[in-house]
Fold:
Amino acid sequence: MAPAEALLNAPEFTVSELSGALKRTVEDRFGHVRVRGEITGFRGAHSSGHCYFALKDEGAKIEAVIWKGVHVRMRCKPQEGLEVIATGKLTTYPNSSKYQIVIEALEPAGIGALMALMEERKRKLGAEGLFDPARKQELPWLPEVIGVVTSPTGAVIRDILHRLEDRFPRRVLVWPVKVQGDDSAEQVAAAIRGFNALPEHGRIPRPDVLIVARGGGSLEDLWSFNEEIVVRAAAESMIPLISAVGHETDVTLIDFASDRRAPTPTAAAEMAVPVRSDLMAEVESLGRRTRMCWQRCQESRRNELRAAARALPAASDLLAIPRQRLDAATGALPRALKTNTHVHFRQFAAASARLTLRVLHAQIAQADHRLVASAERLSLSARALLRRRRDRHEGLCARLKASKLANAQAQRQAIARDRERTLRLTERARRALLTSLQRLSARVDNDAKLLTALSYRSVLARGFALVRDEAGHPLHNAASIGPGAALSIEFADGRVAATAGADRPAPTAVPPSQPRPAREAKPAAPKRTRDPADQGSLF
Structure:
């Protein structure tokens, strides 16, 4: 066969079919891969939330994409020029005939890249003023409640509680979080903001100081405390915060944003509270000094009092003149009492002279007259008030009767309107039901006609037969029927059992050198006369 004829016999593909085949080949061959390279062409997330960039090395470049949902959950975000190790799945993008990697996880490539990323993030957050010393708060001298953000199962919380018990026992609230791995940064930030959101006098007391603690580890292990979300939460905390992450040589970004950095979690507990025994000794020393000062002050005042007493005159000299004035007043007191008595007697006599029996009778008569006049006025006022109340009651009764009649008339009109509306809705519902039933009946009739047109029984009714084997499977050619095979022949009006004979003609083989005879044309099926009520065939 000539090469041109071979090319003509090659199968044809559409562009979409070829692109789909290449896509399946790439995805099935490689699956998930880890690629190390430098991020290039990254200009931030797209308006849709997806990230598009490329990974390159000194010899090649591959397109990369991070979907929105994956980018939100990533701990390490893509940055221009950052060398990373990307884990994802290779696929193709048919619209531009190129292959790309869909990244599912991203991590910096080595300690050097992590340190560079940390320094870049430190400069960025420092430029925003999050590390400004003016933002830092003073720690309370003796907090009542201490909040601790750490893992509940590690040795850190035990060290903190043991140190607080030795120095000065305080109430401790622990917010359990993951301190390493995925979602640990979000949990630490949520714990800091959760403590700040507690009300000051609520059922759960708000801490006076916070401790964010974790044991030592590598830079990758402590990376959660370098995340921007944790640093911003520490800087926004209104509660003084102590960072105690890692050992003394470990440095994380939360150390710069916190109000105080402790080299170890134990040192953070020592910063939070003073030593109780030292305080008791200091209080005792201050008490002794206070008592000594009070004694010296009392002795000084006693000496001053003695010196002032020596300078004062004698009591007899001070009371001599007042005693003389008292003696003079005592001598003048009897005469003054007699004079006062005579003056009051004259006033009483003058008043009694004016108080005669006729005057008393006149005053009583005047009081009786005033009483009778007041009684008459009271009676007139009561009758007038009663008359006004009766008139008002009759007016209210008339208004109530008219209101009842008007309300009853309005209710009857409303009932009549509702009855009329109900009748209209009933008629509409009856017509809608009839229309729906007619539509459904017509649909059922049409489906029945379509089923009849598509059923093989209509073919049997035109004189054809369906041959089945003894298992009930339809037979399509004579070659599949053996001699003596039990057959079932189905006609339009029933089935008939039959047995295949052995005298069927054998197929004639065509010599390879001779061309194959053309396939005989099938006789054309008779054209059906379409019934006007028939829906027709779909084929």
